[in-house]
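Dear support,

I submitted the protein below through the web form. The confirmation email said the job was done, but the results page showed an empty box. After a refresh the structure appeared. I'm attaching both so you can tell me whether what I see now is the final result or a partial one.
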Amino acid sequence: MGEVLSVEPIACMIRKDDPAFKKAVDDSIKRQIADGSLAKLYDKWFMQPIPPANVKIGLPLSEATKEAWANPNDKPMESYEVK
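What the results page shows now:
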């Protein structure tokens, strides 16, 4: 894989003005972080060979993503500092 061209926050798009649905999505993401299933999914799709051609992307979890998983938030993209 070549050089990473940009780093941007990842977001889930959800409907506006539905706090119950947002809470359900937030809780699900936090549960997947806590129980390790999100890390397993990342490993499956970015670190392991992907069938049927067994192509391996080989993109380790970035420090920014580790930080985002450690501290989930609702910050807008504009609040992320470009480093």
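Response: this is the final, complete result; the empty box was a page-load delay. The helical segments are 19-35, 37-46, 63-70.
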